[in-house]
């Protein structure tokens, strides 16, 4: 039995976005139902190198009594990722790199070693798509993006898989990055550069910046805009102004991670935003325990507190290890079926 080595191109080729979205939706479902094990993300700080390592292990089981045998699956893995700020200037390396080990839960055999950086981009876009599907207006046709870096590409790729996006407004201080984004998608969408306010008045807005001073305020968004706040991944990062967060219906992916390093971490630490201001976790909405925009959850026909959400919605996404495992499974299964990647005898078990 061999381990499959999948580089960035292999991951990109085999991460079919529709399947990754389904996988991430399954991960949220398993987590909400208590069928996932996900220890807290651990950090190794290396100030001498102006960087850190982060380990993200997880196991999830989407099998239920109602699941057909061919549709049920479980999966396990761990992502080892870094943030080394000086890499681009001093070593000609990316700031963030990731490696994913995808394992057979029954035997622990390492089925695949994957590029975790591309995998992260795909599952991050998929998480935004799941939230958009639950929280955006059903007839959304416009998408605003603040920040035209690498994450912006999978935001459009994934969100356009769950809504019929026609118009895209991208805002970034770097005109070259905006031009590159427009060139990449201009043949498929009506893409143009715009201000933060123009992007924010689209039906859906994704923010993918690393800022610590909020750049999107309450007046910058429409009355029913759904916002995917994807940029904050460390304490101190903060893209959306406090008044916007307090006015919106806030949905998070995980309480511990979001209050520590997600979009809400700064106002939460200051006491300006509390647990009472958090509507719930995305998994609750996915499984129907809490209504989304269309009122698919329990009590959705009422006008009381269990009615469908309205107005501005915010999804605070920190990225969960269960998403990486679900996406890795999709990539491995697809690559294995297509004879992609590089099989090798990692454990020296070949006869």
Automatic annotation (TrEMBL):
Reactions catalysed: L-alanine + NAD(+) + H2O = pyruvate + NH4(+) + NADH + H(+)
Active site per the UniProt annotation: 79
Keywords: NAD, Nucleotide-binding, Oxidoreductase
Family membership noted in the UniProt record: Belongs to the ornithine cyclodeaminase/mu-crystallin family. Archaeal alanine dehydrogenase subfamily.
PANTHER family on file: KETIMINE REDUCTASE MU-CRYSTALLIN
Example of a GO biological process term: alanine metabolic process
InterPro entries membership: AlaDH_arch-typ (IPR028609), NAD(P)-bd_dom_sf (IPR036291), ODC_Mu_crystall (IPR003462), ODC_N (IPR023401)
Entry EC number(s): 1.4.1.1
Name of the featured protein: Alanine dehydrogenase
Molecular function, one GO term: alanine dehydrogenase activity
Binding site for NAD(+): 123, 150-151, 231-233, 237, 317
Matching Pfam families: OCD_Mu_crystall
Catalytic class of the enzyme: oxidoreductase
Function summary: Catalyzes the NAD(+)-dependent oxidative deamination of L-alanine to pyruvate, and the reverse reaction, the reductive amination of pyruvate.
Record GO cellular component, one term: cytoplasm
Superkingdom to which the source organism belongs: Archaea
